[in-house]
Amino acid sequence: VIYNYSKCERVPLLRNITSLSARFIDYRWELLPVFLESCPNLKSVSLGFCKSRGEQPESISLGPHCFLQRLEYVEIVKPIVDDEAEMGLVSYFLENSTILKKLTLFLHPSRKNQESLFLRNLLTIPRLSSSCQVVVSDYHF
Question: Could you report the per-residue pLDDT of 71-119, keeping only the tens digit for each?
Fold first, then answer.
């Protein structure tokens, strides 16, 4: 559904969606914020990603955001291995979700040696919700 809309088209308001599970076959998530903001009653999001070899991720649009006012739970279930793209996605949820309770991330096994740097960077991201718990776990295939 997300790919059916260009940056010029308006995504219709989807008031009845409270839970969303989305899987991306690549990192083309530039319209994800627009889509999420069209779901004003969204409480739970589960995202998964699969990257093609050599593909570079798109960054999330940093334009004006509507706050995700009802979003309580975010889970990124497929490990992202690109630090900049991953931090952009995590920042988007932490900085724009007013009552986020829990953000769960799964690290790719190849990142074990970079885990402390990743966690330090994660701690520097400002949070709109002061009660948000961030859980980082190993991804098991």
Answer: 999 998 766 666 677 788 888 899 989 999 999 988 777 666 666 777 7
Tokens standing for residue 92: 């988007």
DSSP for residue 97: B
End-to-end CA distance of the chain: 27
Sequence-distant (≥ 6) Cβ neighbours of residue 126 within 8 angstroms: 94, 95
Alpha-carbon span 98 to 127, nearest angstrom: 9
pTM of the predicted model, to two decimals?
0.79
The SS3 of residue 4 is: helix
Quote the pLDDT of residue 59: 55
Phi/psi of residue 50, each to 5°? -135, 125
